[in-house]
Amino acid sequence: MIALKLSEIARITGGRLVGALDAIDAAGADPLVDGPVVTDSREATDGSLYIARIGEELDGHQFVAAARSQGAVAALTSRPVAELPSVVVRDVQAAFVALAHALVELNDQAVVIGVTGSSGKTSTKDLLWSVLQRHGETVANVGSLNSEVGVPLTICRITPTTAYLVLEMGSRGPGHIDYLTRIARPQIAVVLNVGTAHVGEFGSREAIGRAKAELVQALPATGFAVLNADDPIVWGMASQTQARVIGVGESAQANVRALDISLDPQGRASFTIACDQGKAPVVLRFYGEHHVGNALAVAAVALTVGMSLPDVAVALGDARPLSRWRMEVHERADGVTVVNDAYNANPDSMRAALQALSAMGRGRRTWAVLGEMRELGRESAGEHEALGRLAVRLNVSRLVAVGEGTQPIDSGARDEAAGDELGDESTWVPDTDAAYELLRQDLAPGDVVLVKSSRDAGLRWLGDRLLDATGSEVTS
Ligand SMILES: Nc1ncnc2c1ncn2[C@@H]1O[C@H](COP(=O)(O)OP(=O)(O)O)[C@@H](O)[C@H]1O
Ligand SMILES: [Mg+2]
User: Fold this and answer.
1) Which of 194, 243, 307, 356 could form a disulfide with 223 if both were Cys (CB 3.0 to 4.6 A apart)?
2) pLDDT digits (tens, 9 = 90+) for 237-249
3) Residue nearest to atom 11 of ligand 1 (CA)
4) Ion ligand 2 contact residues with beta carbon within 5 A
């Protein structure tokens, strides 16, 4: 982070500087905070500021001593603490946000890039990091830390020389993205798609669209809105921003277009980027056609900040997955390919993953091992049933629906196959142990198996277990 004395943090947050009550801190009451800002005491290192949040179950004030032993020099708290000098405030979250806001203001050359959408935020954020860091120092969220805690944590990692601050912004309701954009106002906004992720909380797809539009509404007139021109709800956001709109997609109205998309036998996409700067071929190392749209959005941002088209195309081709369990492909020693895409799931990302599976499975036996898609509210049963039908239409060889809430996947598949032999290739099992047993017995060399579910359904561990003890290597 940008180094600050604790007294400056007190001024920024409107808090009160209180020395360590047991006065054992050698750095004195006004230490220099020059290490990472952390909310988890285990992540503190030398010079850290520890933010003591009060969560639903735990009170962060209990971990001040732990943070100190890891090297933290100060804490942000809502009451005086014994073990570290602290800034005491009434509202720790508000103070944390004020600190993040002040830090980003201290580096006024950093271009802030906000990324949102129903699916693909983390993949796109990672890809943006891979491409932009070739052009200038880039800070991006770690993993999927995209909330009111993750975003300020990311912002606090800015340095005096950061050129690009890439912020994945998540939304679980109206006002969430607006809140995040007030911490660091984006100059460039990327909206990937509007699907049905979390529709249970939002009520409708239109409501999700309104929530995502908060990102483009936050742009200044001098900013840029990178919008998916193939998604009508996203494209409709063009009228809701003062900023210049850059359309990305396959449609003719897109400014940065993908032409001639093809998938190799492993399901990796190649295409030609066509834009004002000309045309360039791109070969992605990511699995699934859905990454083309993400790559176009990244290209649009990179071109906007001044990278040349050939550099962008090369950087996209060199990029590798950074976050786990997103179309993670492993070859087992026995010739089984395991595709673990079980970080999370919603109807759109399920569709994308099944399409990738069918591309990867040409001439091979394919398995879709699918767990529950959570947070779909009233639409849950219908969406699961549609997923089962889709698996049959895409000719998945064997379907395994795993756990509570997934019976409609199995019944949808049987119904779609309607007496066809395929219906017998669909199985429902109660839990991941049962799925593991089934796979252990029936997987054969050459099979491709996709494992996917919402995070809480936990199928990513099943995917990892399928690799244990077989000697496998990551090929992505
Ligand atoms: N553009 C896209 N459209 C549909 N699914 C996608 C897209 N990009 C990624 N995915 C899939 O969505 C899931 C979540 O990806 P991730 O990048 O973690 O998104 P998010 O951060 O929005 O949850 C993964 O299964 C991934 O393969
Ligand atoms: Mg994410």
Assistant:
1) 243
2) 999 999 999 999 9
3) 349
4) 121-122, 144
